[in-house]
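Holo prediction — (2S)-2-hydroxybutanedioic acid.
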Amino acid sequence: MKVTVVGAGNVGATCADVLAYREIANEIILVDIKEGLAEGKALDIWQKSPINLYDSRTIGVTNDYSKTANSDVVVITSGLPRKPGMSRDDLIETNAGIVKSVTEQVIKYSPEATIIIVSNPLDVMTYQAHITSKMPRNKVMGMAGILDTARYRAFLAEALNVSPKDIQAVLMGGHGDTMVPLPRYTTVGGIPVTELIDKDKLDAIIERTKFGGGELVKLMGTSAWYAPGSAAAQMVEAIVRDQKRVFPVCVKLEGEYGIDDCYLGVPVILGKGGIEKVIELDLNAEEKALVENSRQHVKEVMAVLDKLN
Ligand code: LMR
């Protein structure tokens, strides 16, 4: 399997590293626009192989997309990260142009690839990649739900003093302050979370999750990379190993949840066909209203992109 990761910054390099040490793909191409950066990080990942015992090969290239030809999956992390005080949406003007030109290059050399977008603002950059690539919706998706649920699950694990492995959760909506963690679909070793934690504490965790990316931006002056890079690698794994994993993923909705023509995080089945199925939950009125609020926000940012294009 051949996987390309575009962008050798913190998120892209972390994703390539996870793909290599977990041997998710045997050939990993890391691309960056900055001379030598991808080559250097790829070499570093390769030099770690005798220590961590893997034989996946990572090759770095500077802007040479011919080396990415015939990739099975391409992860696009390119674009600026936000700085403290910025919202993800503030990145739209710069990142839309970058995601558009990267997608054109990717499709030119790998017309059959499944594309995973990581660049922000996530839902709208997935829209950008979808309209640029003209691929079917099952092959163009955004990584956010795995990251956002991971934050939610990690906070819950800490509060309950249990292993994060035992926390399962669903989260829907856009990758921003309007995201919708769903306590009714959150369990701890099969036990509904609401039986184990007070409402106040759970509400506080939900609020912290919504601003989880911003919390890290404030701490570090730039955005996160370990969890985002690992989350993208987990999506690649589900596709290349045809695992049929159930994850929240950003996809163009075409009538599901009564929503048309909007890119939003929803639970899906992820396998070698990309998004093989969108799972429709039976949401209650309150949950529906929260998802609708998120849809409206994403639609507004999609309209900004339409104007830019
Ligand atoms: C994240 O959630 O970590 C990313 O979307 C980056 C950011 O700006 O928060």
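READOUT: The two ends are 34 Å apart (CA to CA).
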